[in-house]
Amino acid sequence: MSRIGFGFGGALGRVVRAGVGRRRVQTLVLVLSTMMAVTSAVLAIGLLAASRAPFDHAFSGQHGAHLAAQFDGTKATSTQIAATGHAAGVTAASGPYPTVTVDQGHVNSTALGGDVGLPPMSIAGRADPGGPVDDLTLLDGHWVTGPGQAVLSADVFGPNQLVGAVLSFPQLPGSPNLTIVGVAQSVTGTADAWVEPAEVPALRAAGAAPTFQMLYRFASAGTDAQIVADRGTLADALPAGALTGSLSYLNAKLSAESSTAPIVPFMVAFGVLGLVMSVLIVGNVVSGSVGASLRRIGILKALGFTPSQVVRAYLAQALIPSAVGIGLGVVLGNVLAVPLLRREDEVFGTPPQVVAPWIDVAAVCAALVIVAATAFAPALRAGRLRAVDAIAMGRTPRAGRGRFARRVLGRLPLPRAVGLGLGSPFTRPARTLAVAAAVVFGATAVTFAFGLATSLQRVHAGISRDGSADVNVFLSDGGPDSGTTTVGPKGGGTAPAAADSAAVAAAIAAQPGTRSWSGVSRYELTVSGVSGATSVQLLEGDSSNRYELISGSWFTGPGQAVVPTRFLEVTGTRIGSTITLTDKGTAIPVRIVGEVFDTSDQGMDVVTDLRTVSAVDPAKQSHEFDVMLKPGTGHAAYVSALNNVLDPIGGHAQDNAIRSKDAIFVLLDGMIAILTGLLVVVAALAVLNTAVLETRERIHDLGVYKAVGMTLRQTIAMVLSSMAPIGLLAGIVGVPVGIALHDYVLPVMGHAAGTNLPHSILTVYSGVETVLLGLGGLAIALGGAMLPASWAAATRTAAALRTE
After folding, report:
1. 685 in helix, strand or coil?
2. Beta strand 193-195 with 149-153: parallel, antiparallel or unpaired?
3. How far apart are CA 249 and CA 227, in angstroms?
4. Confidence bin at 154 (pLDDT 50/70/90)
5. Closest CA to 734 of 316, 322, 436, 525
6. Do strands 137-141 and 166-168 pair parallel, antiparallel, or not at all (unpaired)?
7. For a tag site, which of 109, 418, 671, 746 has the least CB within 10 Å?
8. Is 720's pLDDT higher than 50?
9. CA torsion 398→401→402→403, rounded to 10°?
10. Residue 266: its H or E element
11. CB–CB of 208/156 below 8 Å?
12. pLDDT in tens, 655-711
C-alpha cells in the first residue's frame, strides 16, 4: 500500500492529474459551467447589494441637503438669509446662492439634433461644486471658470453629451448665451443649471425680484413632521413672507427608493434560477465523469487503491477544474458588474462602486461546497464498487435500457440516423432527466427575461407621461411637471396663470397636423384625510390616454377623479368613495371612479377634470399641453409652425423626441440581458457535456455505423437528434414555468414600488411569441450539441473501432 501513497503527491496525485488532463472536454465543461454559475451569482448578488439604499449612499457621499429653501430677496437681505445657517437644529448649511428661473430658452446641440426649445429652468449661482451641503458630482467637463459658462444638471437631458452646447435666452435683456462646460449631479435636484454668482443678475427678466437659495442639514430630519418643524424655525428667523418655498429631501428619497426597490424581486428570481442550475450542472458533469470512468476505477482498485483513495481522487478531479472555473467566474462577475454599477452611479450620482469583497469570498466558498457535496455521492459510489464489478460494467449502459424505445422508433418512417439519435436519451434516463432539467431552467430564464423586458418597457411608457406625447406645449410662465412637491401655502399652484391658456388650446386644436391634445396643470390643495398639501392634477381635452387604468373607469366630467394605488392604501378609500378637496377655503366633493398607474409624488396625486376646480376658482387653467400628431406629420415643421402662432399669446412648443430613456431602466435592461445570457450558456454547457458523454460511451458503435456507410451529415443528424427531443420537451415545460414566474414576480415588483399594475403590463405574451419561446429549449439543446456532433463526424472510423 505504501507504493500507492495516501497523499496527492504520489500515485494518487498522478491519477488526479491524468484524469483532469485526459478528459479535456469534460474538464473544460466543468470549468465553464462553474465559471458561468459563479459569474451569475457574483453579478446578481453584487448588484443586489449595490442597489440597497442607493439614495442613502449618494446622499451621504454628496452631503445632500435635507431642505432646499427659496427666499425673496426683497424681504430679507443675503446677510439675514445666511444667518439662518446658525438657527436651532441646523448642523450645516450652504449659501445663500442667487437664483433665477428662466423660460423660453434654447439649446443648440448636435446630440439633440440641433436647436431645441428648453422647458423653464431653475439656475443657481455657485462659485464651486463643493461645500458643506450638496457637494455636486461632476459627471463630465469642468466647473464654471468665468462668465458665459454653465454647468447643466444631469437630470435635464439625461446621459446626452452636451458639453460644448450653447444655452440661449433671446427673451432676456441682452439675449445672453451660456456655453455648457460641464454636467453635474445633485442628489436632491437643487437646480437645473449652475453659473457664477455674478452671472445671475444678467439672467433676470426686467423688473424681476432677486431670489436666493439656502441648503440645510438638520439634526432631526427623518420624517415629514420634522422637516416641517425645521422649516418653521427658518421662517420664524426671517421677516414674514421671506421664505417662499422649499424642497424636502424626503421627496427625492421616496422617489429614488420606489424606482430601485423593484430590482430586488427579479434579482432574487434570477439568483434562484442560477443557484438551481449550478447544482444541476455540477451534479450532471461530475456524475457523468464518474459514470464514464467505471472501468478505470476497477483497474485502480485492482492495482491496490483503497475506496477512500478512489473517493478522494474523483473529488479532486471535480474540485480542481471547478476551482479554476470559480476563480474565473469571480473575475468575470466583477468585470461585468463594472458597467452596470457605473450606470447606477450615474443614476444616483454616487462615487464609483465595486463588488463587495465579502461577495467574492462567499461565492467562492459556496461554490466549492456545492461542487464537493454534489461530487461526493457519485465519488462514494465509485469507492464502494468492487473491482470486478467496475471492470465488468465499464461505461456500457445496462442491458435492455432503451431497447423498447429504439424498437418503436425503428418502425417509424424516419431516417435511420435520426431514429438512432432519438432512442439515445432512453439509454441513460437519469442523465437525460438531469440535462432536461437544466434546459428547462434555461428556457424558463429566456421566457421570464422576455416578459420582464417587455413589461419594463411598458412600465417606462406608463410612468413617463412626457414621453407619451409627440409635442409638449408650455405656457411662458408654466413648466414641465417636475414630479416634486414643495412646502408652500395651500391652494397655491406651480405657476401663476398669466398667459391665455384657452387661446393656446384653441391654437393647438386648429393647427394642421394635430390629432389630439390634452391640457394639464398641477396645484397644491388639501384633501380630506390627508395631512398637509396634496398635489392635484387638473386635466382638459382628450386626457383619457394620459394614464393606464388599473381598475374602474376614467372620469367623464367634473366631480370625478382617478387616483393611484398608494393613495387608496394610505387614505383607506376605494373606487366609489368620495373625498373632499379644499381650495382657498371652499370644499369640493369628488368621487373616485378609477385607479391609475402612477408613481409620481409617491403615488399621492389626485387627477380630475379641470372644471372640477375651475368652477370654484376660474383663475385655474392648464399650464402644459400634450399633443399627439397625425401620422406622417413632421415634428420639426409642426413645432416651428405652432410656435409662430403661440409666441404672441404666451405659449411655447417643444419636440418631445429629445426625451431619453430613464437610466434606471437602462440599468435594468442591462442586468436582464447579462443574467439571461449567462443562464442560457450554462444550460447549453449541460447539453454539451451530456452529448460528449453519450458520444464517448458509444464511440465503438459510432465506428461500426461509419464502417457500414454512415455519412458525416448522418452522424451529425444522429447526435443532434439525441438532444432535440430533450430541448423540445424542455421548451414546452419551461415556457409555462417562465410565464408563471413572470406573473408572480411582476406584481411583487409593483408592490415594492407602491403600485398595482395594469393588465396591459402583465399580459405580454402573445400566441406567436409563446410558440417561438417554446422553441428556445430546442435552440439551446441543438446549440449545445453542435460541437460534439461535429467532433463525432470528424472521428475516423478506425480510431472509433479501436476505442473500448
Report:
1. helix
2. antiparallel
3. 9
4. confident
5. 436
6. unpaired
7. 418
8. yes
9. 100
10. helix 263-291
11. no
12. 775 555 556 677 677 778 877 887 788 788 878 878 887 777 777 778 888 888 888
Q: How many helices (H) and strands (E) does the chain have?
A: 26, 22
- The CA distance from 514 to 508, in Å, is 7
The count of other CB atoms within 10 Å of the CB of residue 75 is 16
Round to whole Å and give the CA distance between 212 and 151: 18
475 pLDDT above the threshold of 70? yes
Angle at the Cα of 436 (from 35 to 325), degrees rounded to 5?
10
Which of these, 194, 224, 198, 192, lies nearest to 210 by C-alpha position? Answer: 198
Q: How large is the C-alpha radius of gyration of the chain?
A: 34
What CA–CA distance (Å, rounded) separates 614 from 593?
Answer: 20
* Residue 162 cell numbers, joined: 452636451
Render pLDDT for 175-225 as a digit per residue (tens, 0 to 9): 889 999 998 888 888 888 999 999 999 888 887 788 899 999 999 888 877
| Element holding 612 (H helix, E strand) | helix 610-614
As a whole number of Å, the end-to-end CA separation of the chain is 29
In angstroms, rounded to a whole number, what is the distance separating the alpha carbons of residues 493 and 619?
11
Cβ atoms of 605 and 493 closer than 8 Å: no
Least confident of 69-83, 711-725, 744-758: 744-758
Res 6: pLDDT: 44
Cα separation, 342 vs 683, whole angstroms: 29
pLDDT in tens, 230-256: 888 998 899 888 887 777 787 677 666
Q: How far apart are CA 336 and CA 450, in angstroms?
A: 21
Provide mean pLDDT across the span 272-288: 73
Q: CB–CB of 622/605 below 8 Å?
A: no
Which residue in 163, 102, 93 sits closest to 131, CA to CA?
93
Distances (CA, A) of 744 to 172, 177, 223, 446, 783: 55, 53, 33, 16, 30
**What is the rounded CA–CA span in Å between residue 718 and residue 783?**
14
pLDDT at 9: 56
DSSP 8-state symbol, 351: P
Residue 626 has pLDDT above 70, yes or no: yes
Burial 558-596 (b: 16+ CB within 10 A, else e): bbbbbbbbbbbebbebebeeebebebeeeebebebbbbb
Residue 14 region by backbone torsions, left for phi larger than 0, else alpha for psi between -120 and 50, else beta: alpha
Q: Quickly count: other Cβ atoms within 10 Å of residue 481's Cβ.
A: 20
DSSP-derived secondary structure for 302-349: HTT--HHHHHHHHHHHHHHHHHHHHHHHHHHHHHHHHHHHHHHHHHHT
Calpha distance 647→644 (Å, rounded)? 6
- The half-sphere exposure of 55 on its side-chain side, counting CA atoms within 13 A, is 18
C-alpha cell at 401: 435500457
Q: Which letter does DSSP use for residue 536 in this model?
A: E
Residue found by looking up cell 449595490 in the block: 50
Amino acid at 168: S
Alpha helices in 69-222 (DSSP H): 78-83, 154-157
Asked if residue 147 has a cis previous peptide bond (ω within 30° of 0), the answer is no
Interacting residues of 147 by C-beta distance below 8 A, sequence separation 6+? 196, 198, 199
How far is Cα 696 from Cα 719, in angstroms, rounded to an integer? 11
* DSSP E strand boundaries for 657-717: none
pLDDT of residue 476: 66
The H-or-E segment that residue 122 falls in is strand 121-125
Q: Are 753 and 597 contacting, i.e. CB atoms less than 8 angstroms apart?
A: no
Q: Mean pLDDT, the chain, as a whole number?
A: 79
- Report the 10 Å Cβ neighbour count for 634: 11
Residue 352 backbone dihedrals phi, psi, to 5 degrees:
-55, 135
Residue positions counted in the chain: 804
> Confidence band (pLDDT; 50, 70, 90) for 480?
very low
